[in-house]
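Supplementary Text 2. Reproducibility record for the structural model of the 137-residue chain.

All settings were left at their defaults, and a single model was retained for analysis rather than an ensemble. We include the record here because the model underlies the residue-level annotations in Supplementary Table 4.
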Amino acid sequence: MRFVISTMIAAGLSVLPPVLSDEAKAQGMPPEQIKQILDMTKTNWVSFRDWQGQQLIYFTHLEAWKCGIDYVFYGLNGGPLDQMWELDPCNPDNPNAVLKDKPYIELPAGSTQSISVQLIYPDGSKSPVETFQYKPQ
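Retained model, structure tokens:
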């Protein structure tokens, strides 16, 4: 190992890990990588469920990546993104844990045909608005 480190130093390469923000450290990866993961998994950001006469919309996936998200805004049925989903605080010791009692919103059955969602990241950038259609099972 000493040989590898001395070779890296001689070549002018850094042997120190990159400096990451607290949020990125909590997730264990650079913020850009978290954004890429969220982009690749955007079809899972929210999900619908009919349950006991109610329509539930789950934000579980976004709760699991909360350390890489500052804000989640959403709008229902083509309306403006004027509602905010409050993410639990990031826990650096267990960043992907979803501990919220209700990681969903409760709505009257059949009242929501679509939900549009936009994420705001710690660097201030925004995701594209993604719209999810309700598909009865």
